[in-house]
Structure formats: C-alpha cells, structure tokens
Here is the input.
Amino acid sequence: MERAWAITGAGLITTAGDTPEQLFSRILEGRPPTIENGAFPSAAIGDFDPGKYVKRKGLKYLSRTSQLACAAASRIGSGLEQERPHEIGFVLGSAWAGLDTIVNFERRAYVDGPRFVDPGLFAETVANVSAGQVAIFFGWSAVNVTIAAGTASGLEAILTAIEFLEEDRAHAMVAGGGDGLNPHLLRTLHDEGLTALSSASMPYTEGARGPIGSEGACLFVVESVDRAADRGAPILGRVRAGVSRLIESDSDDGTAMRATVLRELLDRCGLAPREVDLLVVSGNGSARRERTEAAVVREVFGTDGPAALAPKAVLGETWAAAGPLGVVSALESMRHATVPAKPPTMKPRQEYDALHFPTEPLKRTLHHALVLDCDESGRFSALVVSGGE
Amino acid sequence: MSGTRPWVTGIGLVTPIGADPETFWDSLIEGRSGAREIRSFDTSELPSHIGCEVEDYDVSPRIRSVMLGGRCTELAALAAVQAAERSGLEHRLHGARDVAVVVGTTMGEVVQFEQDRAKHPSDEPTPADIRSLVHRPLDVMARSIARIYDLRGPVVTVPAACAAGTYAVGMAASLVARGEVRAALAVGCDAFSRLAFLGFSRMRVMSSDCCRPFSRGRKGLLLGEGAGALVVESETSGRARGAEPLGFIDGFGLSCDAHHVTGPHPQGAGAARAMQDAIARARIDPSQVDYVNAHGTGTPLNDRMESLALRATFGDRIGEVPVSSVKALTGHMMGAAGAVEAVASLLAIRHGVIPPTWNWEEADPDCGVDCVPNAPREQPVRRVLSNSYAFGGNNGSLLLSTPAA
Here is the structure.
C-alpha cells in the first residue's frame, strides 16, 4: 500500500442513526441501543424501511442484509452519482449473508413441498447476492466481490478494495460490511452460550458473557488521494494500511504473534506505537475476544497506551459492519478532536488495564487511529486510519 | 511483476470424474461422465434425479483431526493437500507467514444443516439444526486448510457463487503478483447440496438427463460437487527451489453485470469485459488465445450469452477459437468449477489436447462457436482463457499460459 488512499464518503445504517454525525452523537451520549428482551437481548433497527432510502420495486423481497447494504450505499455521498458507474467497484463483507434465507428456504421446502419453493428466495440464499443487488441498484460494475471473515469481514472488504485500486481495476471502490439481524442465528448463538444474558451487558465488564446481537451496514468510498483532490471530493480520512491474519492460539505465543503482526503494520505506516492516538477495540462482552485484544494491546503499547473506544458498548455486535463502524467512530473522533467517554455502565475489569477508556470526553488532537478486530475463531485484523482535511 | 509472476506449481482435485489430475484428464478425453442417480438425498418429489456426486473418499486421521467442517471442508482439504504434495512445497508450508489460503465457495458447509433438518422435516428449525451454521459455514474451509499447515499468511474466503473458484485462483495469483506472499493455496469447493438442487430445479435450469453445452436443444445443467486446488507460487520462489511450473496465471479479469441477480446480461456485456480484462492484463492480443475453457453450463441462456461475449471479444476470429465445456461430464460444481476448470486448462496446455464438449448433438445458431464436439482435438495450446459466471452478476476470467512462454 505505497499509494495513499482517501475515504471520501461514508454511508451507514445502524441502531444509532444513519449518519456519521448521529452515530458519533450517540457514542458521546454513551447510550446503548434499545434492546428487545425476548428469550435473549438483541437490538434491531426498529423502524428500518429500505424504501425510505432506495426507490425501487422489489425491495421487500430482498434479504435483510441486502436491504441494509442497499440503504447504506444510498447514503454514501462523495458525489459518486457524478461518476461513471462502470468505473466503480464494490466489495461487501458479510459474516452471515444468506444464512437466514437458507433457514427459511429449507423450512418452506419442507412445509410447502419442494416443488413450491420460491426461486427468488433461492437467489437470496447465495452469499454474494447482497453485493450483486447493490450493483444492480447503483450500477457499480467494475468489480463486485463478497468477503466472508466473521466480524472482520468489513475490514477485510476495505483491504480487498484497496488491493483492487492498486491493481487499477476501478477508479473508486465502495467497500465495507453489513449483516441483518438474524433471529435463527441469534437464538442458536444464545443456546450455545455465545450471546449476552442481560440487556445491561457491556464490553470488558464483569458479568458479560457475549455480545448483544445487533445489525447494520457501513460502506465507504475509497479512492486515491490524488483522484479525490482532482475531483474536489472531501477527504474524510486516509486509510494507511491494514492486515488480517488467523492466529488461533490463546497462549502467550499467540499474543506474541499478534503483536508481531501489529508492529509490522505500524512499521508499514511509519508509525511508532506512541504515535497512535486512538484505539478502537472490538470487545463485545465475549471473554475470549476481550482477553485476546487486551493482551495484544498490552504487548504492543504497554500499560501506558492510547485512549480506547469500544463502539459496541453503544451499537451491540453488528458483525461485518462492526469494523467499518469502528472506522467511522475513529474518523468522527478525529474530526471533533474528542475521544468519547465510555458509557457509565461500562466498568472495565482490572485485568484490562492496558485499555484506557476515558470516563470523561477527552478533548485532544487525534492524528492516527488503530481499528482492531479479534474474533472468536482467532482471526486478528487491524486497520490504521488517519485524519482527513 | 518481475520475479513475482504467478506460477502454478501444484494441482489437486476431487471431482465426480476423478480424484486426481490423471484420472480426471483421462475422463475428459474418454468422455466418462460423472452423472448418475443422486444418492445424497431423496429426490422422489423432484422433477430430476440425476446429478454428479463425488464417489467415496478417505480423509486421513491427521487431516480429519484439524477439520472444522464436514463434507465441503473435506473435499477442499483433500484437493489442497494433493496440490501441496504435488508442488513439492508441502514440507515448506508449516508455520509459513508468507503463504496464503484463498477459498471460493457458493454454499460452503451447508450440507450438515440440510442433514440435520432432514431428521425432523415437518418441525420448525431448532437451534440444534442451525448449530452448524453458526460456526460460519462460509469460511470454515479456509480456516481448516490453514490449520493443516499452521499457515500464518492471509486466510481469505470469497463466496462468489459459481464464479468462486475462478475468483479464488485469481485473487491468489494477485497476492503473489503483488509480492504480498511467496505462495498461495487457491481452492474452489462445494458439496452436493439439496438446497442448491431445489433452487436450480425451481429456476427450471436443470436438465433431466444430461448436460449438452452449446448444443441445440440443450435442457440445462446438472448439479455437481467437488474441489479444485492450485498452488500458486512466485516465479522467484519456484525457481529457487527448482520447481517445475505447470503454467502461469498471467491475467485475472473481473466485472459485474449489474443487471439481474440470477440472469446473465442478455448481450454478455459483463462477461466480455471480464475476458477482455484478463487478456489485457496478460498483455497479449486476443489472437494469441489458443483455447477457451467456457463456463458452458448447458442452459439456453448462459451458452447463448457466453457465445455473444466470445464474439465481442474475438470478433470475426470467433470461429477459429476452440471453445469447450467440461461441465458436460463434471456437472456444475458451483464454487469448485472455476478452480477445477483452471486445472483442466493447465492439463490442456500440458498435453497439447483440447478436451471436447461431450453430449453435443446439433449446432445451435445462437451459439456460433467452435465447441470441439465429442472428440478431443490435438493442437498446441499455449494460452487458455477460462471463464466463470455467477449469481450476483459476478464474472471472472483467467488467462493461463504455457510454462514455455
């Protein structure tokens, strides 16, 4: 990644709003999402109406993930509608794309009989169809790729998009992640002991067992800094470099390997650890994820590292959208020169003392942020972003 | 790209017509089809009962001990290990930080869910049924292959449906060409899925007897399963260890139709762009392509569209470019197809023989291509274009070159 890559647009749909400003305002408030307390806590975008965002027939037949991705794409800005759509590519990360429809399709095949299943429903079982729907709606046809990597999917999608830009496959890429709330999967995750037990569950906090399942989509326009300047597009931030690796070991060796990956990433960016002003962490209440994340932060930054921000305290677990929403949180923090305070009910355990979640908003200039994702399968991903204009 | 030109140094596959490259090639040349009565599930309520399933196979205890998934993962792992062994790189893979895994799939590990559901079909799905899905059926194959060799490079899953194998091979080659890794294991895979069978059946794109690509009166595709794997290595790395390249991946073309979620663009505009992109990235002229390994599903729409795209790419020379589809024998292996067909393309280069389009009966004016009907054709093959198309309008083409080029 020798060339500099600019983020010139951001579109998002979350429980905390559909603009970066609304999201950041919610993070500043420290107010968790509205949680439905059924058999287990979860947070849906209650009044989500895809027709509000995209004027096109057939939206109601799309999967929730497809609807969210299309809605986020409609919010992307950057003057992209002035560009030639066949020169724009699209990469969507999704952890669960198609799976909810797979469950519904199988159910209907058994209930109605195999000769009566809806062929349109079949299309939505296929993981790359959400990205295809976005391409149809917006005409972005240079490249269209879907990436599946759990909660790292969105970050990996951004990295893949930059690779395509490096290969001159598109003039600009739209990339990010999205996942719809999936009751079947959430119920099963809950039965497996992998979701929060209480609506009061908070990342890094005593008593948390797992995430509060939520949903959302977040996409960026990424293009070269030179091209953005040429067309007068606002530069919201710069993607410096990123990495994603699978390191399954929970032992000290695993921590050392993750630390090496992270140090190499910072080296590529020409940054010393002390130059990182903000850590956006992926903690969601899952003990394994949080132990892993805190350990690698301690290894690289010591106990005197940068201020930390945990967007999932406010958003819940948004799966593939989480990494890109972490990037938005970082860019907004930089723009406002403010590290938001942690929510009052988030009380990090002593063992996580390498993570410095402020109790009051910190006003300071922020140049560089590191967005992390440490998922339960051992995938470790990181992206360095710097401030915009 | 000096020094990082992507070599293919190992190939492996598990298909309905052979579980190693030699058997697979013999089947392609002799016309042995993988089509037979479906054994994986009950088809009595369905209009079609024929498919291309992989025969029984063995997974070693060593590999099984690190597998995170079921049948699709096993197919993928078998192909990957076969390719690694044949590349001579296997013993240099363990713990490597500069070796990637890139896996393409459509449905991934969905078969376990289907089998669990089949135990109590009249009930609502239970968490026990869905348990296999929450373990991330799409990327479990890539994670499992990384575990076999404790690989620590990038581990990428690209679910690009029926173009996924081509995307995996192309993205692996791109990682090598950019110098990000020394080598990559590229795998395309899918297991025989009831869900896919029902879906294609309801879309009325399945043949009830056999698959006849490019032939007048073709009725559609046969569903298949399998896995194909390629070890893609940088030229520098391959030369340093004295490896023998099977061919080069000199071009990877991509495009999206942005037209319809399941149907191809009627004029094949996106497919043509992908082909032209692959040819341009290989820095050759279309006249230097000796053979096109077509997507060639045998559906009326796909073969017509692909023929139009070929005409847009090769112009008046279209009748001089041999075009064939191996799907007549393998069935449509979905996410595996592109990787297996890349292997078939490399074998065509090695043997100087173009595998024919079997089951062809009569010329279709909608498909004005030389589809090498029913008999292999001996001729020098230096460069092959291998095409794949998918739901979502995803199009991919690979340009593979002879090691002598």
Chain B touches chain A through 63 residues (CB under 8 Å). Chain B has two domains: 6-240, 247-401.
